[in-house]
Structures are given as structure tokens and as C-alpha cells.
Design brief:
Two copies of one chain form a homodimer. Chain A is 46% helix and 16% strand. By secondary structure, the first copy, chain A, is α/β, with parallel strands linked by helices. The first copy, chain A, folds into two domains: 176 residues, Response regulator (Rossmann fold), CATH 3.40.50.2300; 138 residues, Rossmann fold. The interface between A and B is large, with 36 and 36 residues.
């Protein structure tokens, strides 16, 4: 049976009014009281009813936005577009860079749950499914699998992985390496690696996979990639993202390999930033405008109909190849 | 005489309680009422008293952050550091990318004034002094001059302009061009150009200034820079920022100039992103960690003592040269 507000009150040893005030962050409350109520809510897995919340007139027109880091141009462009489109609908965003910090992500979720936002757009890496299951708020995910009920918007990572390998094959490569952070099983981005594997198999080639940890500093990644390029006689590299592709280009230069003569490279993401400031890089372009429009449309549906069931919970948008200098034949 | 809440009520033809509710965004209010009260506040230049606000228990632990664009790596890193440090103090940020959109910046200010944040960190370009004079909130500025009372945190743009010109001179350049958006008179960044001018004069050289509009698309800037490099026999370029420096490098390649043999280039900002993904670029490094620490310290002083007078309202931190491939002799 679903726990009720009265159950939380009983568990916490406070009045139902106090629980309501904690949920709606209304009036003076001691930290001790707040902690007791939150602990009781956690224990019972109590989810504040969105109708009750809106009856309090507490619509904030704030949306929580949780992503790893705005210093990654892909997230910067995505979040900037989210902020622009939400602004046109009268919403503002609370930004959380969760980086590799589990505690920070958890603390943000808790603050956002305390009724400060009307919904959440999340694309962070760290937390497991449990934490997101407890959120009594409309939430949509970019490219991350949280729970069954949380809709995922992503681009076609599998097709992207295949397209990248095919592009290098078409450019004449026969020993094609995958470099990147593709091993996160719970994430749709892991499907880039699967796409690469399947295409390589189709082409009757050998897969070669070099894993780099998404959270390693770039200088550490660079060292590993240089070692890889020294040891091997690769002729093509599929990268899990454009920043990794830049490191591959730097490593190639440092070990004396010419791109594209000795080694061809293709990135992933294709932000406006990269296309402007690294125009020579071939890449798989994610449809950022469409992704953002769909994230917001889906979030608004959930905000408007908090108790509705939606049949389709995974939306996949197509990607395309941007061919440039680094995959020139 | 300073206008009082009662004066606003009289001007708007509503009760003082209604004015208080508009200021504190409390309870149901029609848009017509809100507009009337805001108009009266604007007319009388009324600034809500922060003590009255805090008596309402409306401390939100939110800080408004208004900058041109997080797709610029400099602002992305600055805002990420601001968000991280504020998080450690229990604050969250509401992010506004004002881009070149005056109306958006104005709309955000109005929303933030409606008591949704405890303070503002602003580094946006568009609005004049008037709009910022009306803000009854603690505010600190990064690198922009708003009003006398709003403290400015910046790095030493004048010294930076001088250092950049000196670096090119030391590398052997004698026809040193300035390329960038240096003509904004109200902005401390304009002092980069002044520093360049003064250093060039000291060195008994001729100044050469090519203005690009900060808000022009990069492709448009690139066209202009290519034309410049074709027409002239420059040997060094001081850029107002690192992104412009990348465009100069692209333009040089396209017109067949080798860097650093034919042309030397120095950028400005020196973000971690640029130092990682464009390590060959010499640049003037702004001390981002110190700037952010000082922005937050100054903001907290204003939040804690809203009615205090502070003697020093302009804080300037030192910059340094990062010498790399593009200014190699």
C-alpha cells in the first residue's frame, strides 16, 4: 500500500501539518524537525502528491537541471538551449554540475525534492536507480537509464557507433580502434560501443577497444592514448566523444603520426563549438535542437499530467555523419 | 528622501500588504496588480529593504547568475566554479544566459527582484546602468561597470593587454595587430585594448586595431580576419580572447601563413579547457579560482550587511602569461 502523509507524521513523531510544511518548505522549521521528517519519508519511500503540492500554490516555475559539467561543450550547448526554451515558457533553471560527485548529486536531489522546482531534467552519471525512484517530481532523463517510469530522450547511439566505424572503413581503414568510455552498462552511450562492435563484425574486421575513464583528467587520458598509438599499427580511431578525439589528434602529433595520412579519426557529438573551433574533425552529430525540444515537451507533459501513464518512455532521435579533414581518403 | 513601502502603495492605489505580497511573491496576485505595483516601484525607484525581506523568512538560498553564454568556455568554467563554491555554502544557482538579448536580461532581473534569490552575480553585457540601479538585492559584478554601488571583480585587463603586446615584441614581432571586441567603453575588458595601445607606444611601434563584434557569428568574424591577414604584412596578433585567437589561427592556415614562423598569436583568458585542448596557444591567463573566490566573498559580505557602506568597490587580480608554441621565436 502507498504510504500516506499521516504515516510519515506518525513515523516522524510530528503532526501532519508539520510534514506538509516540510514538504512545501513553508514557515520556520528547525533542522532537527526537517531531518526527522525526511528520514521518515525515506524510510517509507513516501512521494509527495503533486496535486497536494499544487493546491498549496507552490508552483515555482523553476526546473532543476542536473548534468555532469558545463565545461564539456556538449552539455554547455544542451543546457543553454534548455535554458533558452524554458525561458520562453516562463521557467528558469537551477543548475547542478554533478561532476563525479555522488554526494553532491544526492544533496541536490534532496533540495530539489523539498519542493523548490516543478520538475527535473537529468543527465548525470553517478547515482543508482534507488535515489531517482524516490523523487516525487516530474523528471525526464537525457541519455541515462534511471527507472522504468522516467522517460529517456537520447539520440541513436547504436546507429552512431555503426556510422562511425563505417565512415573509417569507407575512408580505407582496416584496423579500427574504439577509444572512449563505452563500458557504462546502464547508459545509452554504451550503445555507441555496441554499434561499433556490430559494424566491425559485419565488416569482418577485428574489434579493438581502449577504455578511458570519463572522469580521468585529460592529461591522464592523453598518456594512455599515446601509449596505445605507439604500440599499435592502427589506421583508424572511433572516439566516444569529440574531446577524446582531440586528445587522439594531440597524441598522434606527439608520436609523429600524420592525420589523415597515417591515421584517421572520427569523434562524436558534433556541437556547434567543435564544428566552429575544430572544423577539421569528422564526427557523429547529435541533433541538439530536436533533443532539447523533445526533453522539454516530455517534461511539460509530465508536469501537466503528473498521474498519467505514458506508453512510450524511450525516444530515440537520428544522428548524422559530418565528414571533414580527419577522415579524408 | 528614500521612498517607503507606503509611498509605493499610494502610488499604485493598493494596500501596503499587497505591495509586500508582490515584493515577497506571496499568495495569489493578479498580473494587473503585480504590474501596477512594479510600475509604482519603478517610478519611485523603490528598493525593498532586505531586513523586511528576511523578516518574512523568505531567504531562498538561491543566487541569480547572469552571464552572456555558457557555450563560451571562459564563462562555463567561471560559472561551474561559482556553482561548486556556492553549493559548499548551501546555495544553489539560477542560471541566465543573457546572450545578446536585452529583453531577456531585463526579464530575468525582474524575476530575480521578485524575491526569488538572495543575491546576484552578473557579468552580462547588454543593459545600461538604470536597470541595475533599481535592484534591491545584493549584487556583485564580474568585469562590468554597472553602478557606483555595485562592486566589480576583475583581473588586470590593462596589464594583460600590455603583457600580450610585450610577449609578441619579445618574440620578435614588430607589426603587432590587435584583434577583438575592445571598444566597449563601459567594460573593464576595454582596458585590454588600452594596455595594448600604451605598450605599443612605449615600444615606439604603430598601433593596428581590428574590431570584431563580440556577438557576430564566428564565421563572420573569420571572414573579416582572413581579409585582414591577406591585406597586411603583420607578424603578430594580440587577441581579446582565446576563441578569437583560434579564428586567427584558422584564418592564417587558410591564407597560407605558418604559425609561429610567419605570424605569432597570443590569446586571452587561458581557461583549463583551452590549455588542455589548444595547448599550442600562448595566452594571458586570468586567475579564475581567485576571481570566483572573491566574487563569492564579496557577495556574502553584501548579503550579510545589506546596508553597510564598503570603501573599496573595485578589486583587480593579477594575470600571467602562458607562453606556448604560437609565440615561439
Amino acid at each position: 500500500m502507498k504510504p500516506k502523509l499521516a504515516d510519515v507524521a506518525k513515523e516522524a513523531g510530528v503532526s501532519p501539518t508539520t510534514v506538509s510544511r516540510v514538504i512545501n518548505d513553508h514557515g520556520y522549521l528547525s533542522n532537527a524537525t526537517k531531518d526527522k521528517v525526511h528520514a521518515a519519508m525515506d524510510k517509507l519511500n513516501y512521494q509527495p502528491n503533486s496535486l497536494a503540492r499544487s493546491l498549496h500554490g507552490k508552483k515555482t516555475n523553476l526546473i532543476g537541471v542536473i548534468f555532469p559539467s558545463i565545461t564539456n561543450p556538449f552539455y554547455a550547448e544542451l543546457i543553454q538551449k534548455v535554458e533558452n526554451q524554458l525561458f520562453n515558457h516562463g521557467y528558469k533553471i537551477i543548475l547542478c554540475n554533478s561532476a563525479d560527485n555522488k554526494e553532491k548529486e544526492r544533496a541536490y536531489l534532496r533540495m530539489l525534492i523539498a519542493n523548490q522546482v516543478d520538475g527535473i531534467i537529468a543527465g548525470a552519471h553517478n547515482l543508482g536507480i534507488e535515489e531517482y525512484q524516490k523523487i516525487g517530481l516530474p523528471i525526464v532523463s537525457f541519455d541515462r537509464q534511471y527507472t522504468e517510469n522516467i522517460p529517456i530522450i537520447s539520440s541513436d547511439n547504436y546507429a552512431g557507433g555503426m556510422l562511425a566505424a563505417q565512415e573509417l572503413f569507407d575512408a580505407g581503414c582496416r584496423k579500427i580502434q574504439f577509444v572512449g568510455s563505452g563500458s557504462r552498462t546502464a547508459n545509452p552511450t554504451g550503445r555507441r560501443l555496441t554499434g561499433y562492435r556490430d559494424k566491425i563484425k559485419q565488416l569482418a574486421l577485428e574489434p579493438h577497444i581502449f577504455s578511458v575513464d570519463f572522469n580521468d583528467p585529460p592529461a591522464v587520458k592523453l598518456l594512455g592514448i599515446k601509449q596505445l598509438l605507439k604500440d599499435d599499427s592502427l589506421d583508424g580511431v572511433v572516439c566516444s566523444d569529440d574531446l577524446t578525439a582531440i586528445l587522439v589528434m594531440q597524441a598522434a602529433q606527439q608520436v609523429g603520426l600524420n592525420i589523415p595520412t597515417d591515421l584517421k579519426v572520427i569523434g562524436y557529438d558534433g556541437t556547434e563549438f567543435m564544428r566552429t573551433y575544430y572544423p577539421q574533425l569528422s564526427t557523429i552529430v547529435q541533433p541538439l535542437n530536436d533533443l532539447v525540444a523533445l526533453l522539454i515537451k516530455t517534461l511539460f507533459e509530465r508536469i501537466d499530467q503528473p498521474d498519467a501513464k505514458f506508453a512510450n518512455n524511450h525516444f530515440v532521435l537520428p544522428v548524422e555523419v559530418k565528414r571533414a579533414e580527419t577522415t579524408r581518403k
